[in-house]
Amino acid sequence: MRLYLFNDTLRQRFWFRLHLACNESSQPFVVKNLPIIEKIGKTVRLMSTFAMLLQLRCLMKNAILILFFALCSTLASAQTGLRGTVKNAQGEALPFAAVIVKGTETSARPNGTITNAEGRYEIALAPGKYEIVFQYLGFQTIKKSAEITTGLTTLDATLEEQAFRLAEVQTKAGNEDPAYTIMRRAIAKSRFHQLQVQRFKARVYTKSSFTVIDLPNLAEMAFRKQLKEAEKEANFKVGVPMLNETVAEVSFTQPNTFRQRIIANRNSQGDFLSPNQFYNASFYSPTIANTVSPLSPKAFAYYKFEYKGTFREPGPDGKTVEVSKIQVIPRQYGEGVFRGTIYILENTWAIHSLQLETVNTIGVSISVRHVCSPIQGVWMPTNQRYEGKGSYLGVKATGYYIRNLTFSEFVVNPAFVEDIEVTDEKKAPPANTLSKSDIKGKPLDDLVKKQKEFSTKNLRQLVKEYEKQEKEARKNRKEDVAVVRDDSLVIDSLARRRSNVFWDSLRSVPLTTAEIKSYRKADSLGLVREIKAPGTVDTTRRDSTRKKSPNKFSPGQLLSGHTWQLNKHSALIYTSPLARIEYNTVEGYTLEGALNFRHRAKVDSISRFRQIALGEWNLGGTGRYEFGRKQFVGYGQASYQYKATRIGLSGGRYLYQYNPDNPISPFLNSLTTLLFEQNFAKLYQKDFLNLTVTASPFRNRITLAGSLEYAQRSELTNYKEGLSPWINWKNRVYTPNRPDNDEITTTAFPTHNALIMNLTASARLQATQYTIRNGRRIARRDNESPLITVNYRKGMADVDYDFLQATISHSFETGIRSKLNYQLSAGTFLNDRKLYFPDFKHFAGNQFFFQQGDVVSSFRLLPYYQYSTGQRFAEGHVLAEFRKFFITQLTLVRLIGLKENLFVHYLYTPSSQHYTEVGYGLDGIIPQVLPFFRIEVISQWQDTTYKGLGFRIGTTLKFGR
């Protein structure tokens, strides 16, 4: 008798596979720790019978398993299609070459794929005869015939380098490069090509691969344990590609509706990744990924073009097309512009293909390749490839993103026929030129019927008039014209459960050897997680679940803070006092903790990573102990928010800065006080009750805010005399808590009661545009129209004043990565019968060498309270951001991400003497390591008299509250 005993790992894997093969719903039977039987006799017969039954059951299971795998193998071998390798004449593989399949016996739409990084391709096709087109940038397009009967047919291709012929160009001095007339026509027709497509449906295969090449030595040493856990749990390892594959069914309808349904997704880390930022981007648009397109109407301001030759290749319907190669040369290379090559089809002036590269704001190099194919006469980007490489914060990485489209439905806009000819009026003006009155109000179809040839200027006017008429028609149909994009994303419930056989039938681009290894590692990790047998204990992780339970209380949470998720809608949020240790000369050392209860009645998901609460309750309190004053202060608060409307009630005792905008954060003030003996924050005490309401009616175009506060306000002093800093600086002492001001002799005030009503209204001058994502309407943040804000404040009870101010702020682009920002404000106290220093108008000053906060509206050297006013004021801030100015004239400086700023800050009050700051700033002083820091040099002026020079290190990051 032979009895087979399995070790735990083999036994679990064996029964798990049998379980999958047989689709059992019950738990698998296992043999474990079979006792050694010492007594022989009657027990032997029983044991032998048991072993025979066990072996019989194993044989049956194995038979089913073998049958299952045989069936899978049969299905795999039954797949028919094409596979092969695309190489150049030297035998080198051509990665990501386009392979286009055209049916010769049916009217099926063109199908296609891309070769992988190893030059291999594979595509499933039904038996039949096909015409295969192989394309690669810089190489001659070739056609091959293939007949598929059974199995996978091998069809390799060798491409020869493209032979270009130069057009006859006069060489006399001053002659313009022929590239310019080609590009003028292509730019004039770019919007035409975008509007050509009425609607389409397509199956889209995307694959992205991201590989971390190197980590900083410090990170590898400090996070060695975490990196090992990441490799074990999430298949992350330096040098190993992280993959994501997606197959989706997409549809588009003019003017802005995109629908996407994910039918399959596979990721080597096990998580679903959203589509790339380049999804549905078009080089016919003025910008792509915040970079100026060579076909932008402003392209000639940013690019020079050179004609490199023309070649011919077979086009749609067997007709030969001519393609011109145009070199794209940026006037100043760097972020926001491309360089490379674009291929333009003669006569139609559409994009045939392109190969461009750019660099983003953090210095990562990005290359783009598009190959277009004719779909019903319209050249569409059916194969796209994006690659990126670079380093950030010491992490070096590389990655690529490829996209392949196969159209199942394609409808051309009948208003845009391809027989329109466009002429360059600078070379040869058309026989007839239309005026604005000839175009205004006329249907595009009628104008095209009367005239087939248009100048580039007339064509742009025609398209603009068409879009204007379409917008009016949408308004008449009661459509929301403020919506610029309507997207929806649906993920099939089976998307993450597709089998390998399913993927092999859908995958447009074969996996490389490294990618196959990455998937195998991910599958093995998944298998280990799946096959944990019931009742067994994982000794390596037996306590991890208990320790990491989000709602399990532990004493350590009292020190670190924690959020307990009570249920799907409610949470208890605790902020530890150790997270808010501060110091100032009024309170001494302080500890501040908070406890808040949050209940969301309904949550609407914008994406996997973002949610909006349609109805949210918050109730909680904040307590603060002041070691210097030896007392507690704190406040409670309750609020309710529904969509964009919020009402809040708060009350208690707390200390506030005289400037409610907190010109210096408590954290930064703690550092300046303890380390530099400079106590900049000036505080007073309020016992208060406050009711606040905010709302954004008219689809968020207007924001309204109002508050009513009753408070007893008290002046405070430093908690004791002779305070000692950590470092005793010469010629420095702690200043009193009473601010200095040039307008009044003293800022002292008695304890008093104040009832303050504060009303604010803000509005954009232009209507806000929206995007719709899965039915949720979202306001776009790129509304660059001016923002006007009006504020009215009324003081009552022991104070009596009326204050009114107006502000206009605006930011707009002046070029690539260049922007002009300004903010202008003016205000006055209409009534100043009785007010105290907390009621004054204060300004965003700064007296420390480190500058934080809004870079546009903050002064750099202005004393915090010297020019605060109780009368009237006017202030102006202008900040110009330059991609290319002084030292950024050097390409290398631009490529590493440095930017230059010029700024002017002005303040008028009765005592300020026209205070002015003029400065220069350099952003990104430590490129790719600390890119969010800047250094500035500032000059001070009063009444046109020079007062001094200062330097600042700044950041837009917020420290403290």
UniProtKB/TrEMBL annotation:
<protein>
    <submittedName>
        <fullName>CarboxypepD_reg-like domain-containing protein</fullName>
    </submittedName>
</protein>
<feature type="coiled-coil region">
    <location>
        <begin position="452"/>
        <end position="479"/>
    </location>
</feature>
<keyword id="KW-0175">Coiled coil</keyword>
<dbReference type="Pfam" id="PF18939">
    <property type="entry name" value="DUF5686"/>
</dbReference>
<dbReference type="InterPro" id="IPR043741">
    <property type="entry name" value="DUF5686"/>
</dbReference>
<dbReference type="Pfam" id="PF13715">
    <property type="entry name" value="CarbopepD_reg_2"/>
</dbReference>
<dbReference type="InterPro" id="IPR008969">
    <property type="entry name" value="CarboxyPept-like_regulatory"/>
</dbReference>
